[in-house]
Fold:
Amino acid sequence: MSSHKLKIIILAAGKGSRMNSTKDKVLHPLGNRPMIEYVLDTARQLRPQEIITVLAPDMESVQQSITDYADRHKTPLKIVIQDQQLGTGHAVLSARKHLEDFNGDILVLYADTPLIQTSTLEEMIRERQGSAIVLLGMRAPQPNQYGRIIASPEGWVEKIVEHKDASPQVLKDNPICNPGVMLIDGSQVLSRQRHPSGRYSGREGRYRWYVGRPQNLSL
Structure:
């Protein structure tokens, strides 16, 4: 797919503490390759203008792995550092110098979702149609700790509830899980104000959700 106005941000700053390993989460091997390489492969297939990876400080091993990948595939990859982990919005805004004056699509992926399919992302791009954000939703056979997308009957997103904040009734009544993947209108991504809590909130807009194939996307 040729995307004349697409930038991709890959979030890779998570420490993966639940994996009980000294190795950075996204460098754990799958099929003898670091996990993050599968996401980079998928991103490259969309032929974006730019791929930007967001890392935390002291992730030199991940930075070297990305650099080696870029050299092997002759693909320019940008790396930015998120000094503090203040949520997804803050992670995206860590890449703001690469997003200034960009009015195309911005696709936000996670480095720990190696099973996500290019065809799913292409469908998200087709679905945006003037909406401010398209969220990827999924019906997971085992939803585990996934948050839920709460949507109106017309398909407009009303809110996202994290698993830890959701009541048993909310989890039961809302089967659409939130894997975190989103497509954003680049003309709106920087129109954000910082909330006193340190989180970031955007102006009101039109938000849609797209249900992809029922598969577990993250590890």
About this structure: Residues 192-219 have pLDDT under 50 and may be disordered.
